[in-house]
Specification:
The chain has 923 residues and is mostly beta strands. Among the domains are: 2-99, Immunoglobulin-like (Sandwich); 320-346 and 432-503, no CATH class; 628-699 and 736-774, no CATH class. It has a 22-stranded antiparallel β-barrel. Strands 10-15-16-13-14 form a 5-stranded mixed sheet. A 5-stranded mixed sheet has the order 35-36-41-40-37. Helix 6 (446-461) packs antiparallel against helix 7. The longest helix has 16 residues, at 2-17. The protein starts with a helix and ends with a strand.
Length: 923
Amino acid sequence: MKRTLLLMFSILCVLFMQNAKAQSTQLSGRITDNGTQKPLSGVSVSVKGKNTGAITNGDGLFELKTNVPATLVISLIGYARQEVEVASAQAINVNLVPAAEELNQVVVSASRVEESILRSPVSIEKMDSRAVQQTPSANYFDGLVNMKSLDMVTSSLTYKQINTRGFNSTGNSRFLQLVDGVDNQPSGLGFAMGNLFGPHDIDVESAELIPGAASALYGPIAFNGMLNTRTKNPYEYQGLSAQTKFGVNHIGDGTGMGAKPMYDLAVRYAKAFNNKFAFKAAASYLKGTDWYANDYTDIDPNTPAANRGPINPGRNALNIYGDEVAQTIPSIGRVSRTGYEEKDLATYGVYSLKLLGALHYRITDRLEAIYQGNFNQGTAQYTGSNRFVINDFKFIQHRLELRGSNFYVRAYSNQERSTNSYNTRALGQHINRTWVKDLAGNTVSPDKADATWFERYTAAYNGAIASVGSKDHSLARTFADQGRILPGSSEYESAKDRLIQTRGLSGAGILSECSLRHVEGMYDFSSALKFINFQIGGNYRKYYLNTGGTLFDDKDKNLTNEEYGVFAQASKSFWKDVLKLTVSGRYDKNENFDGRFTPRASAVISPNENHHFRVSYQTGFRNPTIGDQYIKLNVGPIIILGGAPVNSAGLNAYENSVTIASFGAFASAFGSDMAKGTPFPQAIANNKDKLVKSNVPYIKSEKVKSYEIGYKGIIAKKLLFDVNYYYSQYTDFMINTVVARAKSDILLPDGKVNPAAAAELLGADRQLFQLYTNAADKVSIQGVSAGLTYSLPKNYKISANTTWIDFNIGDADQNNIPAFNTPEWKTNLILGNSKLTEKIGFNVAWHWQSSFDWYGTFTENAPGKVKSYNLLDAQISYRIPSLKTIVKLGAANLTNQYIVQAYGSPAVGGLYYVSLNFDQLFR
């Protein structure tokens, strides 16, 4: 891959180096505000079709060299973009007119080329740098919740997961997050950790959201949508900028532990030299106290709902861990071990460190080379099948890019270093196995601890312990818990630290040092073809897995996975731009799966420049994650086995097993016959035909087909209105199924069940497997989203949007379909004025969503209610021009309602902050 990349770079450099010899002309000018005639600093002045450009200084002046004639593109957030034709070396004076730019923004993500958001072939939302600066949320990523169609789930103060159009989860492998074109997912996790490892607000230029399938251009991860965040170019955003933010949370949370501080410090510096070489460096550090997961609702599935609660002997509290270990004791009933609260197991002191450095060199006015390196480290809680602490997790990225006016070649690598992370629930269970004593007072080994604890409980409850009253669950538990190590004690902390460092089934620690390497490119032939816009591109990716054998079968092995994809897109306008047709297609191939072709087609009808109607057909697919393919984890009674054929080679699990349901029926009937005195061979013969050979296919891709119609238009030059309706059909959802394998062939040559195999299934030769596969069921969703933005007099702006989504499971088996986990309704309302006076501005955002049932592996897919809630975020800003500083006072969740966004995750309350934002250019 390295040789190929270097060769591509060399060829492209030779092809474009000839442009370096072209003669250039020095241009200069001044940019002012049309109304006040005051100079504007930080205005971007670029040459259309080239990389050449400059920014204005504090006096509104700029200089640049380029060939003439040329077209200068002059832009600044908050002003109408202008294009100026220049025929010779002349002074250029331009007055920019203030405008509500968000009414007609330029986007890139919808088609991979610049286009008006009004004529985008698919639904797309955008947050520009002005919206980033003015968001009342704690940061730009949290502020994305105000976009229509987007869902956000909080697992931690430093980790929020986003999704669009249903099938939401706390670790979303169906949604792609790009930062400057780089996939932001740690490859071992298989999903992006929100913005834990993304850019800080201080360096964010824009964020574009595509809701729904985007696989036709971006591949398998963009199954449910894509977020493309772009950071600030060092040529256009120069100088020093800094932010200090102090906040406080946990006010009135009911825990009695008091309010906690939060600090967020960031600095960025960028500089360009002679419009040829530029660099930027940025650093940020956030530190705070995480939200507490302290819901102690009893969710034990084996206790009738009416009998659950704090005094239930078999209590399994939602955020207490260790009490999942339970037994049904004859004549006593269901009893669970005493667990530990999450606050005593988790790491609630969370932080996020982000370091960035980038070098840009313009080889010619059409060719630019870029290197960027990111180092990220942080701590967050993640709600998955358990509650996990992503602790001191390091994420390192390198990007090398060669970009021209009509092409780019990009290579990057992502590396993760997880050596301190751990499973909170497993930690509680293992601590419980370190202190149990037998009836003689001797501490037993961990493998005997659970059984011994239940023996003590049984003896005490049945009156076998002289000093303990019988038939009393409370006294029996107290006796069984004698010697229990308590949180805060040196013994507890020692056991906790040791078990976090112990990986695999005997501890709680998680090791992952996985990585990926990726190379991609695109070429735009439009300028050469003239009569049609045409682009082609492709990518190659390779994963490198290393979990030390704790999760994958990769100990002392070089376990890798490769995939590639190619795409093409053509668009053509007819009848003086009244009709625009776009057709896209992409082919992807993973080494373990059949190739997949995903087409997309759209038509945009524009009767005039203000009204645009669109219709589209989109397809998408999702390959199994690395975990879905390669997990091979023996947890004692069952082996969890990923669905890649190579992963199960030699285990005979897919080929020679029976369904778990048929095994249960067979075992029950066999036991009944034996109880009647039927001889063993006869009991086998009588019931073996109840066994059904499994027919579990190897795992394959999920698929979606989506149809969409929409309208976007500007009314009276002040109102932007956008509405769309979509209908999507899903097939081949990935699921798990359990089978039982025998050593002998399940079926004889005549197709009948083999008695030898049936006998083996009843004994030690039986092995249970949890296999990854796909369901044949089909489901559909439909939805409507609508939004408007209205520019009011005196700089006021109001935005509102609402989204309705409906899930139709049809005849599908609920157990074969991922949890939908999406509210039927959600609404956002935003009111702001960035120039209430010359120095004061404000912004208020209100979010509401309806209630729904959350299904997740954390609760073994038992539903938990996520209640309807509303959030009010607000900020007021004060500009101090003499200090080039903006002071912001704000609150996320101003009314301090403690809300849960995913069942089992923490309750999130208000965060109140004050920030100082310094910008040398003071845009």
